[in-house]
Amino acid sequence: MEPGLDTKQRDIPGAATLSVDNIGGIDETEVTFHRGVTVLSGRNATNRTSLLQAIMAALGSKQASLKADADEGNAVLEFGDETYRRTLERRGGTIVTDGDPYLDDPELADLFAFLLETNEARQAVARGDDLRELIMRPVDTDAIKAEIEQYEQQKRELDERLSELDDLENRLPDLEAKRTRLADEIESLQEDLEAAREELEETNVDVEQRREEESELEEKLSELRDTRSELETVRDRIETERESIEALEDERDEVEDRLESLSSGDETEVSRLEAEIDTLQTEKAELSDEISQLQSTIQFNEQLLDEQESVLPDAATEDDDGPVTDQLLADSESVTCWTCGSSVPRDQIETTIEQLRSVRQERIEERSEISSELDERRETLSEINENKTEYRQTQRRLDSIDDELDRRQGRLDDLVDDREALTEEIDDLETTIDDLETDDYSGVLDQHKEVNQLEFELERKEREREEIDDEIDEIEQRLDDRGNLQERREDITDELTDLRTRIDQIEADAVEGFNEHMENLLEALGYDNLDRIWIDRTRREVREGRRKVERSSFDLKIVRSTDDGAAYEDTIGHLSESEREVTGLVFALAGYLVHDVYETVPFMLLDSLEAIDSERIAKVIEYFESYVPYLVVALLDEDAQAVDVEHEVVSDI
After folding, report:
1. What is the DSSP string of 243-296?
2. Residue 347: inside a domain, yes or no?
3. What residue stretches are annotated with the Rad50/SbcC-type AAA domain (predicted)?
4. Which of 47, 106, 529, 618 has fewest C-beta within 10 Å?
């Protein structure tokens, strides 16, 4: 099994056939690539770069140019029964692409697999740009942000439930103390009741003579006891309702205060933000298209200059219209324009290319600024939506409290009426009992009343203890689930911490990966004048909208050695042109490995390696040939001869 290749790429047949017409400088050609290394060998201006562009086009890249004298071009790549096609068409001064390419999104491949001279990664290093945006561009952070929002909502809900459990737990000591107190009171009442009953039994009374009076009295006493018990129950319920109402009113005040601090959401502001986000997304997409088109134009014009520069006469003959010097001068000073066919001064095209590069860099910076603005708008919109959600939840809670207050106030009014009625009924019963009392029987009546009262108190206390027991049991059952809730909350907190630091960690891992691979590549290539190349990741405070935020900055650092072996740190700006090109290539090659480009892109393309000697070119090919099904390298003939690994050679395009 080849390292790094996913199932899709391992299933690619051994040969891939590319058919091209009107791409770059190619009129029409067909080339078959076999798995492994293919070397495009030849002099400059032999359409090797154009063939690489055609491969890029078929795979999905927009960085391919249409032949200057053609209105339409095609690149078709066949893998066994699978066919991938890309059409380029000139419309209104621009190149429009269509078809069904291999890649849905070619950005990663454009950055780190299609390593032509104009490759953005190579050029960014050569210019000394901050490399963060380029390294992190393939990383999708929107999904991470969506996950953060989901986990934050779950954490808020768990916090509410845990806070409720904390309140219940705080009630337990009071309830248990009350239960203990009730147990003591019940024990004391039971002792008093037993003593009162014994005293009543020992009282010497002529029960037979008083049977009729006692029977009526007992009935009234029993009725009085029941009524008092009912009155006490009503009083307890009144107290409970009042406590509940008081607690609800306190909560209502808190909820109202919270509601005042929230906003129901300004729909106009939300609509404005959504519209701005749509606009910024459109602008970003348009800028990306414009950057791609600028890159294609720059690349094509550079290729045009290279090709026309290389088409020089080998020697002068007697039939020549002028001396060789004149022919060379003419070829070097003017170039045929690919848009109108007229002759244009070479320096004018070179100036235009530099202007296009400057415009492209400006567009890249604009896209970066728009990305920052997009993040700010999305964050603001997310905050507004979270505020709206909390506002709705708080309003629902306030409405629920109001409804509960109304219900409890109604019950309280009914209980107060019941209490008044029971109080009047007790007064009547006590009057009747007083009328039944006689001097001879008054002691017995007092004892009956005492027993009656003690029984009533005992029943009330036992009932109250049962209610507390039930409440404590319910609280303890609910608290049993707190461990699971806390564990879940800890998991969510860990997830949030991981998500919030994931981008930071991705950056750190990416920088570490780039540094490791660049070190390995430099070691393999054996450059004595470049001891080390690494990316230094720092944090800088930048203004984003109305606020200042910290952003990462990726700066490329270089260590070199003097003739006497002393190491010192240098910058890209102090390197020679060839050293900058080598550094840019090493960076781009490291990006290929860091981002696992070989898992999704079946081709790796290398071009413009003249800054590297033949032996090191061979080492680069050997280093990468096991990672990708098709490694295609454009080389001069003398460099191609140094390639040691088994490879195919294409010299006629």
Report:
1. HHHHHHHHHHHHHHHHHHHS----HHHHHHHHHHHHHHHHHHHHHHHHHHHHHH
2. yes
3. 18-232
4. 529
